[in-house]
Amino acid sequence: MKEYSGKFPVKKMAKCLNVSKSRYYKWVKAKPSDRKKQNIDLFDMIQKIFKINKRRYGSPRIHKDLKESGYRCGHNRVSRIMRENGLIARQKRKFTVTTDSKHDFPVSSNLLNRQFEVKKRNKVWVSDITYISTLTGWLYLCVVIDLFSRKIVGWSMGSRITAELTKGALLMAVMQRKPAKGLIFHSDRGSQYASQEFRKVLKQNKMIQSMSRKGNCWDNACAESFFSTLKMEEVFHQTYKTQDEARNSIFEYIAVYYNRQRRHSTIGYMCPDEYELKMGLSQKIA
User: Fold this and answer.
1) All residues at 6 or more sequence positions from 79 whose CB lies less than 8 Å from its CB, including other chains
2) CA dist., res. 37 & res. 152, Å (int)
3) 20-29, 71-80, 131-140, 260-269: the lowest-pLDDT one
């Protein structure tokens, strides 16, 4: 009634809706309760965080942001306000795995064996390849993830899915992290990882190769999970006209957002950089 009070007489609207005209005016004059005022303020903050993160955050991550900002509220309250106001985080789609395991290269044993919790950085890296659709053809992305912090420590993009792609991501990771001897490098059985060219780089850097069992995507679940998140939060909401456009978008997502800002549930809802800083300091103290 209040919304249409400028268009239609209040008396007629009250009669149509079978409500008291005096009760309506009493409601209009009534001051909002403290709880309602808090909910209005809370919604403004939730909406701001939601927009800053480009609709990528659901209620758990938004609740964490609010707590760190000093705002005291329960997760259920945040979830309810988001639901009532139609703030729905981007949804996951089915993820398709493509691995070229039909080759004559030697295959390494599965040393990781789904032990995804790692206590120190540069002890276990996982890697995988995915594809990004552009109007000028497929763009392939290879990433290297440190299981300690789930940080993307190396990546490479190209229009062909070759050993050069995986080698480029590995070399970037080595240059940035300078790992000690004995690091376990885990991937699927794809020819790009099993090739002599790629194994040579692993050997030069004194790494131990580990590979998933045949046809078992869960053996590399962390890498699969990152690609699912990347596509849900960024790729599926874009139409890339060129491969360069896709490269820029993915670079911004990984380097600026994912590693430095995005809260990860596995590491206590911290971003990878924050987690490494905090855990690195605590290890030095210990």
Assistant:
1) 59, 63
2) 42
3) 20-29
39 pLDDT higher than 90: no
- For the chain, give me the number of helices (H) and strands (E)? 11, 5
Structure tokens at 137: 């053809």
Task: Name the residue with tokens 């398709």.
Answer: 96
CA 144/CA 165 separation, integer angstroms: 11
Distances, alpha carbon 195 to alpha carbons 167, 179, 187, 188, in Å: 10, 22, 13, 12
Confidence of residue 95 (pLDDT cuts 50, 70, 90): very low
Q: Is the dihedral of CA 61, 66, 72, 76 positive or negative?
A: negative
The residue type at 182: G
pTM: 0.69
How many CB atoms lie under 10 A from the CB of residue 113? 12
Distances, alpha carbon 283 to alpha carbons 121, 153, 263, in Å: 11, 20, 21
User: What is the token pair recorded at 149?
Assistant: 């912090």
